[in-house]
């Protein structure tokens, strides 16, 4: 009985224990079910985290374009290499989706990536990783490299579409445009690493924040193998691409500059070169380049370049005799210019000083007029002029012309230059370009006042900034006047005198003359301070420059060229400068369709508003005025016109009328490059001009209906090239006729 009693109590105790345990589990279950938490952790969030996936949608970095919409910098498609290294992600009996043999995989990948086997293997064997990337050497892969790796059929190796910064024009304006560099950074939202592109210099760095854009994210729920869970949510936050920046830069003029600079750089081996081209009427910078330069795609040349500054804006020079332009302008404006008065050239003793000012030939040219002195670039003439002008008045005009002040150009470290004011001797030296320092861009800015009837224009490089996500223009820049340091009458006198330095027999700028165009400008020769604080001396040790404009009657371009320490080998210091200037100025004026004969006197007419009217009604009206008319589209109702309404246009020029529908390709013969590019942009075609000057042939027949962006090659030649080709054809035809006369025909039997 006792034993039976104990057994019953034991069974009862066990029943109570297990019943209590069950109640505890059930209670705990209901508590967790109702609260969703345990030990302070949110189980719902913890479970969701096991299935939650987030994928970065890369934003496209904004494009940098020239004034005609041609690409200077853009993101282009590339590929990113990823390896799955967790064996559990592969299913038994199926093809493995993880890296099976890390050593062999590393060996194969090393053939295609810029990395060693050891570096790759270290990534593949990363402890605890499920998927790995390969940093900078696994990103930015070309399609060709990606295809070659795929052919190896390596298990666990995958590719994602990516992008990299691409500069299709190579070293084109590289110190102005700059470059953007990709680095691996951690994304806090996804706790993963990604490549972020950041501007390092130039426009890329200055506008990095708005070029960068904002990445998007794709959120979804998936199982451990990455498959989407049925009924799960799927959210996408779209990426916002960076803003596009349209510059005032003209790709064609920049190419003229780069081609001329490369020729001179290779020929004379100078230490440095800089060229700036501007529109004096607006202040727009059309080209800006320097040597040595670099290709922003590879940046291989950068370690060899001692200075990474944009020489036009971030570094200073002693301007040499180009500064005399503005000393002359100040003297004329204040009635202190006596062109026919005489002075003794050769040397000038500064007041209250032992310093002697000497002319560049050391001995002068005897007693000559101040006009001749200026044409010969006499320092002594300027020193005597300063006696009448006065140092205080001169410094007042130095400030009016913007020297010693930043121009406000887009750069994070623009130089302002230093104008010496401590004593009269330094101020007199400044008047002929020695001692004080300026930037090339300040010289160009001041020159706009001479070219633009006394009105000085602010130089600028950004035309507009556009949000590609909405198409909205978020910033549009307009020409800005900086005051009138001199009158229009003074500006005209200065232009005439500068033009005489090119045309008179004793002028220092004779080498800068251009056929069919009048040129005005001033040469400069400046000494360069060495590391010891003293000046280098010798014909191969100077900075040679020229600041000029053309045509003189109505200046359309200002071009500044500086060549530092060229190897002259018997030629004048101005020779390499002139080779750049004349090439750039002549080609650019022809490209802009500036007719030297009609610069001022050509008859013009003002266009009306033609949008909404029909081509049938407008075309005869325009042709009766002596205008050429180009129709874009099928030729019905006009939807756009170029030039715009109220624009004054020279008779004989071309008007573009845009309509709906596909475009019939015209005969481009004798079209200028400017007109070809306008037609391309309005018609949304892919025209590929080759050469300079005017169109002579095209590879697609006129009259072809263009329904796609198939490239159309258009050959351009300068008038000189056309003449030479014509002469060669004539000579060849004459030779063939002579040969036919000299060699009698033979019969079949004789043959």
UniProtKB/TrEMBL annotation:
Alphabetized, the UniProt keywords read: Membrane, Transmembrane, Transmembrane helix
Is this entry keyworded Ubl conjugation?
A: no
Record keyword Transmembrane helix present? yes
Which InterPro entries is this protein grouped with?
A: Beta-lactam/transpept, Beta-lactam/transpept-like, PASTA_dom, PBP_dimer, PBP_dimer_sf, PCN-bd_Tpept
Q: Could you tell me where this protein is found in the cell?
A: Membrane
Domain PASTA as annotated: residue spans: 601-661
- Entry GO CC: plasma membrane
Entry GO MF terms: penicillin binding
Q: Where is the composition biased (Polar residues)?
A: 720-732
Note down the stretches annotated as region Disordered: 720-751
Alphabetized Pfam families for the sequence: PASTA, PBP_dimer, Transpeptidase
Coiled coil start-end: none
* Membrane-crossing residue ranges in chain numbering: 12-31
What's a single GO BP term from this record? cell wall organization
SUPFAM superfamilies xrefs = beta-lactamase/transpeptidase-like (SSF56601), Penicillin binding protein dimerisation domain (SSF56519), Penicillin-binding protein 2x (pbp-2x), c-terminal domain (SSF54184)
* Family stated for the protein in its record: Belongs to the transpeptidase family.
- Any idea what this protein is called? Penicillin-binding protein
């Amino acid at each position: 009985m006792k034993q039976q009693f104990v057994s019953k109590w034991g069974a009862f105790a066990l029943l109570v224990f297990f019943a209590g345990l069950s109640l505890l589990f059930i209670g705990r279950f209901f508590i967790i079910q109702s609260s969703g938490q345990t030990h302070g952790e949110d189980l719902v969030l913890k479970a969701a985290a096991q299935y939650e996936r987030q994928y970065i949608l890369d934003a496209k970095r904004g494009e940098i374009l020239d004034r005609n919409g041609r690409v200077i910098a853009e993101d282009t498609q590339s590929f990113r290499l990823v390896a799955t290294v967790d064996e559990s992600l592969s299913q038994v009996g199926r093809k493995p989706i993880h890296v099976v043999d890390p050593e062999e995989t590393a060996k194969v990948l090393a053939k295609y990536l810029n990395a060693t086997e050891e570096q790759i293997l270290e990534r593949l064997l990363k402890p605890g990783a499920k998927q790995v990337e390969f940093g900078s050497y696994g990103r930015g892969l070309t399609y060709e490299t990606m295809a070659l790796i795929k052919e190896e059929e390596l298990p666990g190796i995958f590719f994602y579409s990516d992008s990299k910064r691409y500069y299709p024009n190579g070293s084109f304006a590289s110190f102005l445009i700059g470059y953007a560099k990709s680095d691996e950074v951690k994304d806090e939202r996804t706790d993963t690493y990604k490549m972020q592109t950041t501007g390092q210099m130039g426009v890329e760095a200055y506008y990095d924040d708005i070029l960068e854009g904002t990445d998007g994210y794709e959120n979804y729920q998936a199982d451990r193998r990455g498959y989407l869970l049925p009924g799960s949510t799927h959210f996408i936050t779209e990426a916002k691409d960076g803003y596009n920046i349209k510059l005032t830069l003209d790709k064609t003029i920049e190419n003229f500059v780069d081609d001329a600079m490369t020729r001179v750089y290779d020929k004379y081996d100078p230490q440095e070169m800089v060229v700036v081209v501007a529109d004096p009427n607006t202040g727009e910078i059309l080209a800006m380049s320097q040597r040595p330069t670099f290709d922003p795609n590879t940046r291989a040349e950068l370690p060899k370049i001692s200075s990474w500054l944009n020489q036009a804006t971030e570094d200073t020079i002693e301007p040499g005799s180009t500064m005399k332009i503005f000393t002359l302008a100040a003297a004329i404006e204040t009635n202190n210019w006596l062109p026919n008065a005489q002075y003794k050239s050769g040397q000038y003793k500064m007041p209250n000083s032992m310093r002697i000012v000497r002319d560049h030939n050391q001995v002068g040219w005897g007693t000559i007029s101040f006009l001749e002195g200026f044409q010969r670039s006499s320092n002594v003439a300027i020193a005597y002029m300063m006696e009448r002008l006065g140092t205080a008045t001169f410094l007042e005009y130095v400030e009016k012309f913007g020297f010693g002040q930043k121009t406000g150009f887009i750069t994070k470290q623009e130089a302002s230059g230093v104008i010496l004011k401590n004593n009269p001797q330094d101020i007199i030296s400044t008047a002929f370009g020695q001692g004080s320092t300026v930037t090339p861009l300040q010289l160009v800015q001041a020159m706009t006042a001479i070219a633009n009837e006394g009105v000085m224009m602010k130089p600028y490089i950004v035309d507009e900034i556009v949000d590609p996500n909405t198409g909205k223009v978020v910033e549009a820049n307009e020409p800005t006047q900086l005051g009138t340091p001199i009158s229009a009458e003074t500006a005209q006198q200065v232009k005439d005198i500068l033009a005489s330095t090119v045309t008179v027999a004793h002028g220092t700028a004779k080498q800068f003359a251009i056929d069919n165009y009048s040129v005005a400008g001033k040469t400069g020769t400046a000494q360069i301070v060495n590391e010891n604080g003293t000046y280098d001396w010798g014909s191969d040790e100077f900075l040679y420059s020229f600041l000029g404009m053309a045509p003189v009657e109505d200046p359309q371009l200002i071009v500044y060229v500086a060549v530092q320490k060229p190897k002259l080998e018997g030629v004048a210091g101005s020779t390499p400068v002139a080779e750049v200037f004349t090439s750039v100025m002549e080609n650019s004026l022809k490209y802009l369709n500036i007719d030297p004969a009609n610069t001022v006197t050509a008859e013009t007419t003002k266009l009306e508003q033609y949008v909404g009217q029909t081509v049938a009604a407008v075309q005869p009206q325009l042709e009766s005025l002596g205008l050429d008319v180009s129709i874009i589209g099928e030729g019905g109702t006009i939807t756009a016109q170029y030039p715009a309404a109220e624009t004054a246009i020279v008779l004989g020029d071309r008007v573009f009328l845009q309509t709906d529908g596909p475009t019939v390709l015209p005969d481009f013969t004798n079209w200028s490059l400017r007109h070809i590019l306008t037609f391309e942009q309005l018609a949304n075609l892919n025209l590929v001009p080759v050469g300079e000057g005017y169109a002579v042939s095209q590879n697609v027949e006129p009259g072809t209906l263009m329904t796609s962006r198939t490239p159309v090659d258009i050959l351009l030649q300068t008038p000189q090239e056309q003449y030479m080709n014509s002469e060669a054809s004539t000579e060849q035809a004459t030779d063939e006729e002579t040969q036919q006369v000299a060699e009698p025909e033979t019969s079949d039997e004789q043959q």
